[in-house]
Write a structure and sequence with these properties.
This protein is of the alpha+beta class. Helices cover 24% and strands 33% of the residues. The strands form 3 sheets. The chain has a 19-stranded mixed β-sheet that branches. A 3-stranded mixed β-sheet has the order 21-24-23, covered by helices on one side. A two-stranded antiparallel sheet has the order 20-22. Residues 182-276 form the FecR protein domain.
Length: 387
């Protein structure tokens, strides 16, 4: 190992031990900004070292990135203006540090002076907290248009909108009730919900959850389309079930994520804490924390996954690892309320990175220049992509 790489590894080791000085931080940031050829040293680091170093580095450079991007993209993608090497390097570092410490080295050649994915695209604002609540009598409440406070009475349950926008259900007594409500988000929407048992649900864009206003049976059951994250209130007497088109998830109290978007070809359940049982077409699997069950027509497949990547959406990020352009654009289309049309065969290039969902579409598309062989044409809110 040459002296330069030994020095970098030494700096990262200091991060790992919490001993890095301001000068050490600056030296390592300068290294990430550099576009010189460096051997990939990621395999020399432990997983813990990678995670700690990249988290601290991202915190240090994030504000700098935002400031410089605002300066350089005052009118995002409105011209063919060349982007400065400084900005490209910093964007590459900020986005790709999040996936692997050496990762940006794999993609820096994508930021060449070639025409990349697009240069003239109308900008679109990111999504936000938007949802419609459908009550048992069919009445619909557009939640982003109403003030906080009491919204409705559903049987023995009061429905409220909290000051943070979350919808919550306060069950009054133990009376029987068969009233079901539905919370649905449009493309470009997300929303938080607290069920009558205290279970917390966070709904992603283009998703819905149907549930009883109060749980009065010997089990708790909800139905989900799209994607939702659950923190289930523990109740050993009443199992909690999530029903989807192709599977059923049953738990007592745990944290997990379900993704059942129809255009992905599979339903995915990812466990963060506790234990869940997955059943479909006569098959059953028990998940452990850190595992994901993928249900397809052929059955259930279980594997280890990065749960932080799976649940990044609820924390305000897009998080991709070796994602093809179809996967990336599916995520973006739901959040920015766009239609995507793929024209002919698509590039085999992949993207790895972590991007804030608060960024405008134009800013995100600048990062997507890593798909350098793809070209974009925009017609209204429809995006055509060809190789």
């Amino acid at each position: 190992m040459d002296d330069k790489n030994a020095r970098i590894l030494s700096l990262i080791d200091k991060f790992d031990k919490g001993l890095a000085t301001d000068e050490d931080v600056q030296e390592l940031e300068t290294w990430f900004q550099s576009f010189e050829d460096h051997p990939n040293i990621t395999d020399k680091l432990t997983t813990g070292q990678q995670q700690k170093a990249k988290a601290r580095l991202f915190q240090r450079i994030d504000k700098t990135i935002e400031t410089r991007l605002a300066e350089e993209y005052h009118s995002p993608l409105q011209s063919n203006k060349s982007v400065s090497l400084w900005t490209k390097a910093m964007v590459a570092a900020s986005v790709l540090i999040i996936s692997t410490l050496g990762g940006y080295l794999l993609l820096n050649k994508s930021f060449e002076k070639k025409q990349a994915i697009a240069t003239t695209i109308t900008d679109f604002a990111p999504g936000g907290n938007k949802a419609i609540l459908t009550l048992g009598n069919g009445k619909q409440i557009i939640l982003n248009d109403v003030q906080h406070g009491e919204l409705a009475s559903q049987g023995n349950t009061i429905v409220r909108k909290a000051t943070d926008g979350t919808v919550s259900y306060d069950q009054q007594g133990d009376g029987k009730s068969n009233i079901r409500n539905t919370l649905s988000t449009p493309r470009g929407g997300q929303y938080g919900l607290v069920l009558s048992d205290g279970t917390k649900v966070f709904l992603n864009a283009a998703s819905s959850i149907s549930y009883p206003a109060s749980f009065t049976e010997n089990y708790r059951e909800v139905e989900v389309t799209g994607e939702a994250y659950f923190e289930v209130a523990h109740d050993v007497r009443k199992p909690f079930r999530v029903k989807m088109s192709t599977q059923m998830v049953e738990v007592l109290g745990t944290h997990f994520n379900v993704n059942t978007y129809q255009n992905t070809g599979a339903s995915r359940t990812t466990l963060l804490e506790g234990s869940v049982a997955i059943t479909t077409a006569g098959q059953a699997k028990i998940l452990k924390p850190g595992q994901q069950a993928v249900v397809t027509k052929t059955g259930i497949a279980v594997s280890e996954v990065d749960v932080a990547e799976v649940t990044a959406w609820k924390d305000g990020f897009f998080d991709f690892t070796d994602a093809d352009i179809q996967t990336v654009m599916r995520e973006l289309s739901r959040w920015y309320d766009l239609d995507v049309v793929f024209e002919g065969p698509q590039t085999k290039e992949t993207f790895t990175g972590r991007i804030p969902r608060s960024w405008s579409f134009a800013k995100v598309m600048k990062i997507m220049e890593t798909f350098k062989s793809s070209h974009v044409r925009l017609e209204g809110r429809r995006i055509m992509i060809r190789q």
